[in-house]
Amino acid sequence: MVKIDLGAHIDGFIATAAHTVVVGASAENKIKGKKANVMLAAYNAMETAIRMLRPGVYKNVEITDIIEKVANTYKVKPVENMLSHELRKNKIDGEKQIIQNPGEKQRSEITKCTFDRFEAFAIDILMSTGEGKTRMLDSRTTVYKKVDDLVYLLKMKASRAFLSAAVNKYGVMPFTLRSFEDEKQAKMGVVECERHNLMRPYQVHDFFADS
Fold first, then answer.
1. From CA 159, how far away is CA 166, in angstroms rounded?
2. Neighbouring-strand partners of residue 99
3. Nearest C-alpha neighbor of 67 from the set 87, 88, 51, 85
4. Rounded to whole angstroms, how far apart are CA atoms 26 and 40?
5. Residue 209 to residues 30, 63, 92, 95, 114: CA-CA distances in angstroms?
6. Which CATH number fits domain 143-201: 1.25.40.10, 1.10.10.10, 2.60.120.1440, 1.10.3720.10?
7. What is the pTM (predicted TM-score) of this model?
């Protein structure tokens, strides 16, 4: 399975889209069993969540519960603590959130909310044939975003040059180090920025799944 995840913005207004593809599957070679179940669970949970995004009708925690029910129907698990965020101008992780499969701590901390007309959300559903638990890999991430409104006087020239280039080109949108003309210099510059919380890394995760 391969997940293709794309995002774009026009003047800070953001749109994202993702699609999961099973390599080699076709009308003549259909998937079945657990693979089919997990695909159907993710798709139907997403469709249900979208239909519940109605002004003043449902709360975010009700969507959390319905995602769990859809997963149970297909005998799979939502990936723990995965968040769907409100999209605002120049902000990919807005204040309103929908959490799936929360732990006790996360469930108590999530702010309950309803939805308003013309709000935009990125509905991100991840399902697993395993327990739905993730683990952080040792792989070094190459995707970052500038932390809002945080200022620090960097000491290294390479760090200052990297931060200036990243802010001028990407603002507070996520970006990959591969997009810099001098990737090696970018990898050097991002270290001090991350150490002082000027840049938020998008860590690489894996999750446990049954075969």
1. 10
2. 83
3. 51
4. 16
5. 20, 24, 28, 31, 33
6. 1.10.10.10
7. 0.84
- Where b means 16+ CB within 10 Å and e means fewer, 71-83 reads beebebbbbbbbe
pLDDT tens per residue, range 143-169: 999 998 888 999 999 999 999 999 999
> What CA–CA distance (Å, rounded) separates 167 from 27?
46
CATH top class, domain 2-132: alpha beta
Domain boundaries, the chain: 2-132, 143-201
Closest among 194, 128, 204, 205 to 162, alpha carbons compared: 194
pLDDT tens figures, 175-210: 999 999 999 999 999 999 999 999 999 887 676 556
Identify the pLDDT of residue 64.
Answer: 97
- The conformation of residue 79, written as its DSSP 8-state character, comes to P
